[in-house]
Amino acid sequence: MRDYSKESQIRATERNVEITGLETCVIEGNFDWNIVEIHTDAGVIGIGESYRGGAIAELMHYIEDVLIGENPLDVERLFRLMVQELSGHGGTTGKVVTAASGIEIALWDTAGKLLGVPVYQLLGGKYRDAVRIYCDCHAGEAYSVEHGSTDYSDAYAPAAYAETAEEVIEQGFTALKFDLDTPIDNDPDPVNGRLSNAAIEHKVETVAAIRDAIGDRIDLAFDCHWDYNLESGKRLARKLEPYDLMWLEDVLPPENTRAQRELARSTSVPLATGENRFRVHEFAELISEFGVDILTPDTSTCGGLAETKAIANRAEEQYIPVSPHNVCSPIGTMANVHLGAAVPNFDVLEYHALEVDWWDDLLTRSDPLIEDGYIEVPEAPGLGVELDKDVAEPRNR
């Protein structure tokens, strides 16, 4: 077995730092946000975030003993060490990589603080001073509850989508996305992934209503959440070609790259996918076979900042833009901002917490993170943000 653990390494005394432990918390937002802190003997604490969901914090604590005594500046080596040590808990994909992703982000924050530079500098430098944000929206009352969606038919009326779109545009966003999968998709059969004519017509009416409300100058995308079969995906995409979409996301189940490529070749609508894949290897065929127009890896899932940058590099070789999936708290979101600063083919970043009115309060800063649809790339060391524990603790699950 390869050994990624610490060997005798020569480095300057001021960079001879050791990890002393880690702490986790799960904040109940619109999703469960898995937050992790890395503690060091230099008194520096780094913060990161893994994708939502259960068992992530437990996996982080399982790996804690392996990290103690290691130098946090060796970020990429430690990521490989974590994946190796966790491989018995699910191979080298899935939740084990997700847990390692949040720690990897916290290691970059730690390294930036120790060296006195922002994370984007460690990732290779800056291409842009601010990252454009697209707002993931939900029509009417569709997501006005804590978990999941309501089943109110009015929430899925085209007029409700259009009204929400206008409200979001007034907040300064120049790009937005809606979910296009609705309860009507389950009629007449809830499991075969085939859309009826009525379901497709409802989607077309929804897209038309939003486009009419916001005009042609606003970027508009839709998410299908892997619901449809290839035949229905083709029919739907062709029907939406007149509406100049930014992209149509996750039309097909994520496992079959050949089917995704077939869909891409059948329509002029840009297709986006990628949030269900892990590490650069799972993206390789999708990129090389041109099965996607916009790649959407999730940094807090697929391996962290370095791995996502490697994925973006592969995409750049094929002239494919990258727009990360992001349902994180402000911590994970800011990690993506640093990635956006350092990646030339970065396009827009998802914001998925419009209904969480205390989202900004999680940070120890007075100004909103998002202003006029952009997040400024910070110049402070590390990620450039800190969690306000007085706000986080009462929401810690």
From TrEMBL:
Its EC number is 4.2.1.82. It is an enzyme of class 4 (lyase). InterPro entries: DgoD-like, Enolase-like_C_sf, Enolase-like_N, Enolase_C-like, Mandelate_racemase_C, Mandelate_racemase_N_dom. Keywords: Lyase. It comes from the Archaea. One of its GO terms (molecular function) is xylonate dehydratase activity. Residues 158-270 form the Mandelate racemase/muconate lactonizing enzyme C-terminal domain. SMART domains: MR_MLE. Transmembrane segments: none annotated. Pfam families: MR_MLE_C, MR_MLE_N. PANTHER family: D-GALACTONATE DEHYDRATASE, D-GALACTONATE DEHYDRATASE-RELATED. This is D-xylonate dehydratase. The gene is xad_5.
